[in-house]
């Protein structure tokens, strides 16, 4: 339950930030935050990252809904650690934030514009999806590597000679 609340908080933060941007910055306008580093803009993106699949919002809407449903099932049934579930909740919240835009607006509002990467403009939902995915991968790899090491050590102990093959 706590993880669904985290996902809802991520989604709410994304939607509130998008609402603020839409009411503060005109379309294609720009607000410099840290000169030469980052600014805010108001871009309507009908595609996904780097505007791929532009004008195919319906496909992205369906994919987002399927991903969100799969994440809910993973959170409910998956055997993950608390931190892994938190990272999945971050991904879920971001996916739902963008799903809401696509379903009700027909586009996603993008606003964060890192000035040192001229071709990338993204939103808070995208940031949560990326950070959550990276975090999940690291946590999952670390956990499964530790579990495999423990199994190997236990097996070596059973053999009695420290040789994993028992030879």
Summing up helix and strand content along with how strands pair, one would put the structural category as mainly alpha
Question: How many discrete structural domains?
Answer: 1
- CA-CA gap between termini: 49 Å
- The percentage helix is 55-70%
Residues in β-strands, percent: 5-15%
Strand order of the largest sheet: 1-2-3
Low-confidence blocks of residues: none
Count of DSSP-assigned helices: 4
Mean pLDDT: 88
Q: Based on DSSP secondary structure assignment, what is the total number of beta strands?
A: 3
Q: Biggest β-sheet, characterized?
A: 3 strands, antiparallel
Order of helices and strands: HEEHHEH
Summarize the structure.
By secondary structure, the chain is mainly alpha-helical.
Write up this protein:
The chain has helices spanning 2-24, 57-77, 82-105, 124-159, and strands at residues 30-34, 38-45, 108-114. It has one domain (2-159). β1 and β2 (38-45) form a beta hairpin. The longest helix has 36 residues, at 124-159. α3 (82-105) runs antiparallel to α4. It starts with a helix and ends in an 8-residue tail after the last helix. The protein has a three-stranded antiparallel β-sheet. It is mainly α.
SSE inventory with pairings:
Layout: H1 2-24, E1 30-34, E2 38-45, H2 57-77, H3 82-105, E3 108-114, H4 124-159
Antiparallel strand pairs: 1-2, 2-3
Helix pairs in contact: 1-3, 2-3, 3-4
């Amino acid at each position: 339950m706590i993880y669904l609340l985290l996902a809802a908080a991520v989604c709410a933060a994304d939607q509130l930030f998008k609402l603020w941007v839409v009411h503060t910055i005109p379309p294609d306008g720009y607000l410099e935050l840290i000169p030469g580093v980052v600014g805010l803009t108001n871009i309507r993106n009908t595609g996904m990252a780097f505007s791929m699949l532009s004008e195919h919002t319906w496909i992205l809407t369906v994919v987002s809904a399927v991903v969100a449903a799969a994440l809910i099932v993973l959170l409910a049934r998956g055997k993950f650690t608390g931190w892994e579930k938190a990272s999945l909740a971050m991904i879920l919240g971001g996916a739902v934030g963008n799903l809401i835009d696509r379903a009700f607006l027909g586009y996603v509002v993008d606003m964060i514009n890192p000035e040192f990467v001229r071709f990338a403009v993204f939103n808070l939902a995208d940031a949560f999806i990326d950070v959550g995915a990276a975090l999940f991968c690291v946590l999952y790899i670390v956990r499964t590597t530790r579990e495999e090491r423990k199994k190997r050590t236990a097996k070596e102990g059973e053999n009695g000679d420290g040789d994993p093959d028992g030879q």
